[in-house]
Amino acid sequence: MARSAPTLLAPAPAGSGLAPVMGDPGLPYLGYALDTIRDPAAHFRRRRDRYGPVSWGNFLGRPIISVQGPEAAQTVLGNPEKAFASGPGWHFFIGPFFERGIMLLDFEEHLRHRRIMQQAFTRERLTAYLERIDDSALRSVDSWRPGRARLLPLFRRLTLDMAMDVFLGLEPDRARLRRVERAFMDAVSAGLAFVRFPVPGLRWSRGLKARRELTDFFTGHIPAKRAQGGDDLFAVLCRARSEDGERFSDTDVVNHMIFVLMAAHDTSTIALTTMAYYLARHPEWQERCRAASRAVPTDRVDIAVLDSLTDLDLVLKESLRLCPPVPLLPRVAVRDTSVLGHHIPAGALVAVTTYSNHRLPEHWPDPERFDPERFAPERRGEITHPYAWSPFGGGVHKCIGLHFANLQVKAVMHRLLRSRSWSVPEGYTWELDMSTLPVPKDGLPVTLAPPDPAP
Ligand code: HEM
Fold first, then answer.
1. Would you put residue 107 in left (φ > 0), alpha (ψ -120 to 50) or beta?
2. Which helix (H) or strand (E) holds 440?
3. Ligand 1 centroid vs 155 CA: distance in angstroms?
4. Edge-to-edge, what's the strand order for the sheet holding 349-352?
5. How would you classify the pairing of strands 7-8 and 22-23?
6. Burial class of 195 by CB neighbour count within 10 A (0 to 12, 13 to 18, 19+)
7. 328: CA distance to ligand 1 center in Å?
8. Is 323 in contact with 432 (CB distance < 8 Å)?
9. Rounded percentage of the chain residues whose pLDDT exceeds 90
10. Confidence class of residue 425 from pLDDT cuts 50, 70 and 90?
């Protein structure tokens, strides 16, 4: 941990009554990147103890103001004064690889695109996607043989197979899937590359190459999609219109497809892996969820069946609390503004610290404990702020795929619970690799077995 003398980022305007943001730069160039990646909860706790909830530190050559706690999250994400922009914030991390994805658009333009994209996430569309999700879940999970297995790569493949089918309407073709999977992983991991310009063979340059491959891949499929239509998200985006009759250009469709696939694939993989981890460490919860899944009288799932799996819902919520797939949300201040009484100068890069917010002891008693019942209706009063739990963000950029993700993750878990049990050795705890989005370093090795016969 680097530790240098506290300095202020910029003086607060005279007479404003605001406090300046205090902090320190950390290591040359890296700043606090290594601390943030190694253990974000501990890093942000140290910053809170030293500076309070708003402080600055360098991160890969740039000062970032971390704003901690649910009130700060609400100010920045809720953004009532339109003082924060998402595009330039995310651009620092993923811009060159996911350019003009919807999360990188702001204000009027974002709203126009979001209205068109919303057509792809109506209840009617979700019902149609769910049939394909369920087919795909059944095919994948049934092919997982009993014995030792690493769940992270299995879930990654499953969600990508699903994305190819539900989002693109393409039959899973192993060779093509592997190329697209590689390209997405390269594009995502480039975001936190330490060397942030193209050097052949390094992450940044692989990310740019991946972006070109993905653009070619989606562009190549546009004419057929526009001509044939279909039920998949790609076809829906090709024909979607806003209330004013506006529709997406080919370039818009390609940019949005690349972004949505990235946004959907890794996040759902992490949610599934986290649930599987906690259910392996807490077999009593695995059995409780299995009993409910087995009690479902039909073999097909629909929205009503998934809604009835309330224990699984609690486990999903608690898993997203303990390991939110998007641990930090960046924004840039588009003009001078304030957070929790601190002056934020125009142009400052700001980060909402979801991962550590989900562990604040004042909002989450015994925060490291896996306790799904925190979310049970009887204990609802314990969650005292609307942004205390915010794995899907908030405000105008709140995850558009939230309901899709809930259905997808629950449908896969339901299938898995019905056809397999899984366990980890006594005392096993995972170590997370936070160098992109949080994933277990060892891929989460488990023993898969047929579940005990139903009592
Ligand atoms: C458990 C799974 C998921 C989690 C935890 C998650 C989390 C998030 C978060 C935190 C944001 C807001 C980012 C910000 O404000 O800076 C977001 C935005 C977004 N998510 Fe998700 N997501 C998940 C699944 C999905 C899925 C399945 C899809 C698509 C089917 C999706 C599509 C999107 C899109 C398009 C945005 C950008 C929305 C906008 O900027 O208007 N996500 N997601």
1. left
2. strand 439-440
3. 18
4. 7-8, 22-23, 54-59, 62-67, 349-352, 329-333, 84-85
5. antiparallel
6. exposed
7. 13
8. yes
9. 71
10. very high
Q: Given the DSSP bridges, would you call strands 349-352 and 62-67 parallel, antiparallel or unpaired?
A: parallel
Q: Indicate the top mutation candidate among 316, 399, 402 to test ligand 1's pocket, ranked by most ligand atoms within 8 A of CB.
A: 399
Q: Which residues line ligand 1 (CB under 6 A)?
A: 86, 102-103, 114, 260, 263-264, 267-268, 271, 320, 325-326, 329, 391-393, 397, 399-401, 404-405
Is the separation of the CB atoms in 143 and 158 below 8 Å?
no
Q: What is the pLDDT of residues 366-375, one digit of tens each?
A: 999 999 999 9
For residue 378, report the phi and psi dihedrals to the nearest 5 degrees.
Answer: -65, -25
Architecture of domain 7-449: Orthogonal Bundle (1.10)
Q: Cβ–Cβ contacts within 10 Å for residue 264, how many?
A: 23
Geometric angle at alpha carbon 397, from 322 and 123, rounded to 5°: 90
Contact 271, 148 (CB under 8 A): no
Tell me the chain's radius of gyration from C-alpha atoms: 22
Q: Under 8 Å CB-to-CB from 162, ≥6 apart: which residues?
A: 132, 133, 136, 137, 140, 408
Distances (CA, A) of 238 to 89, 221, 248: 28, 11, 7
Distance 267 CA to ligand 1 centre (A): 8
Joined together, the tokens standing for residue 86 give 């998402």
